[in-house]
Design brief:
Layout (H helix, E strand, L loop, with lengths): L13 H11 L7 E6 L9 E6 L8 H6 L8 H4 L11
Length: 89
């Protein structure tokens, strides 16, 4: 595992750190969903969705991209981005 000096080595992985920050404010990243029958007299076919928080160390960068709770902004899609106009050293 990657470790920089002393401290928790998992904090060096960006997706873990970001997932931990979002979970600290109870914002969903990509929870696991459990479906349970919620049959009542008014709705015999109803189902409850129960979300479970995954441990922050189990997240990968892809999880933020596929999460329905985030909008990924990519310059080539959102605007008239032209990589040829970038000035490189």
């Amino acid at each position: 595992m990657i470790a920089f000096g002393s401290g928790d080595p998992t904090r060096a992985i960006c997706s873990t750190l970001i997932a931990q920050a979002f979970q600290a404010v109870h914002y969903p990243v990509l929870p696991t969903v459990e479906y349970r029958a919620a049959a009542t007299e008014q709705c015999p076919d109803c189902v409850d969705e129960i979300m479970h928080i995954r441990h922050h160390s189990l997240f990968a960068p892809r999880d933020f991209d596929v999460s329905p709770y985030f909008r990924i902004v990519k310059p080539t899609i959102e605007g008239k981005f032209d990589f040829r106009t970038l000035k490189w050293a």
